[in-house]
Amino acid sequence: MTVADLIARDVRAGTFAPGTWLKQIDLEHRYRFGRPDVRRALDYLAQKRLVQHVPNRGYHVVLPDSDQTAHILELRVILETAAVDSIVAHATPEAIRGIEALARKFDELILHGTVLEQYEANLAFHHELLSLCSNPELLTLVTDLRSRTSSALAGQWSTRARVEQSSREHHQMIKALDARDAQQLKDIITRHIRQPKER
Amino acid sequence: MTVADLIARDVRAGTFAPGTWLKQIDLEHRYRFGRPDVRRALDYLAQKRLVQHVPNRGYHVVLPDSDQTAHILELRVILETAAVDSIVAHATPEAIRGIEALARKFDELILHGTVLEQYEANLAFHHELLSLCSNPELLTLVTDLRSRTSSALAGQWSTRARVEQSSREHHQMIKALDARDAQQLKDIITRHIRQPKER
DNA sequence: TCCGCCAAAATTGGTACCAATATCATGCAT
DNA sequence: ATGCATGATATTGGTACCAATTTTGGCGGA
Looking at beta carbons, which residues of chain B come within 8 Å of A136? Predict the structure, then answer.
């Protein structure tokens, strides 16, 4: 696993809170990598907009911007609903079963997993679903976008109720996919991404 | 202007043909920058998928993959048509006039400009049009995607006829925008991006 | 007591150098 | 003559070091 992945994971897990300055020396000792590796990783993450670079100051974890995350979520709605027709067209019974397995994996982790594990299981579910789309670039693009909103992980996934709601929506997606109901699937995905605040 | 921009420009201009190995020493001398700057630029461009990194071999300009570019073009169709409703809603008369000016600028360069100038004028036109969308992230995302397909610049922009067709479509877009005809604008944009091969 | 200035420590970012690896050319054996 | 091994060369990539900038702590003055 690369340095960038390790840092990204720690950012998501909350080890490095938003706004924290990531000092190269600390990262060097923490992950036992050389200075150039650390700097490349920070540049990489800066380009991915997970950290921000300030010349002669260093790199710090980005502060979540609610407007910006809202815009990114809208992009995901656009892209993931656009993928639905192709997904439905390529949804073989085996593929659906594979997705269902990942949904159940997510369900299990609601009770006995850490927030990070839940997050990654959720990622795996959506990744598998989107991989049915005939456009592989869409998958990588959405994956990229998702990685930019997850720093607001604590906010979105805080409550048990919200996670259980996600689980229900996963199974609703599978049901709609099984029924080849594209419009229904689009609606669920839209709700799932937007995560409307309850009442 | 940064090293990455300079390299990117030379790649688009065809100075560095697809497949060419970009040697750090050469770039260092060509642009009069230090080694670390060159390496950062190459890493940056590799992340942007303009060049490819092979460990212990170096960086080479990506070879255009027709399937991949087709997929990226489809993503642009999805995103740019999705932006239309918002664009139409925010199209003030002044904004339309600004876009029209850029379209005319493009027209002029058809006759008296280099291919690179035409390319950049085209970019400016689309950038201005998309900037009307209420979602700024969409603009940056499409700009990013566009930068990945332009290495196939020679292929797409080769003929005078194709460039003039683009010009006509620009003005059709403005007309549809002026008429507040969102569906019409979407159709034109879709054709414009897909650039169907003439019979 | 609080504010501003100055020095010291720490961190970033760049330069030079060196090791590791790949490519190329030459020579040898078949 | 051709294929292969071997050594020379060039390029990449990492290590160590140093300069430049920023931050921190302390001191003096208002």
Answer: 71
pLDDT at position A181 is 97
Q: How far apart are CA B48 and CA B69, in angstroms?
A: 14
Q: Where are the domains of chain A?
A: 3-61, 66-194
Kindly provide the ipTM of the predicted complex, given to two decimals. Answer: 0.91
| Contacts with A79 from chain B: Cβ below 8 Å | 75, 78-79
Give the mean pLDDT of B40-67. 96
Q: Write down the mean pLDDT value for chain A.
A: 93
Minimal Cα–Cα distance from A135 to chain B, Å? 6
Residue B116: band (very low, low, confident or very high) from pLDDT cuts 50, 70, 90 = confident
Q: What is the pLDDT of residues A171-186, one digit of tens each?
A: 999 999 999 999 999 9
Query: CB pairs under 8 A, 24+ apart, for B158-162?
Result: B160/B110, B161/B198, B162/B195
- A136 and B71 within 8 Å at the Cβ level: the answer is yes
Tokens at B147, concatenated: 């930068």
Under a CB-based contact definition with an 8 Å cutoff, are residues B119 and B172 in contact?
Answer: no
Which homologous superfamily does the CATH classification assign to the domain defined by A66-194? GntR ligand-binding domain-like (1.20.120.530)
Residue A82 C-alpha, separation from nearest chain B C-alpha, in angstroms:
7
Which residues 27-46 of A interface with strand C at a CB distance below 7 A?
Answer: 35, 39
**Is the Cβ pair B78, A82 closer than 8 Å?**
yes
Please give the pLDDT value at position B25.
Answer: 95
Q: Contacts of residue B137 in chain A, CB cutoff 8 Å? A: 68, 71-72, 75
Span A109-142, pLDDT tens digits: 998 998 889 999 999 999 999 999 999 999 999 9
Low-confidence ranges of chain A (pLDDT < 70): 151-158, 196-199
- Cα B67–B72–B76 angle (5° rounding)? 145
What is B3-61's CATH topology? Arc Repressor Mutant, subunit A (1.10.10)
Which nucleotide comes closest to A56 if you measure CA to C1'? C12
The answer to whether A71 contacts B44, with C-beta atoms less than 8 Å apart, is: no
Half-sphere exposure of A161 (CA within 13 A, CB side): 4
Q: A14 by DSSP, 3-state: which?
A: coil
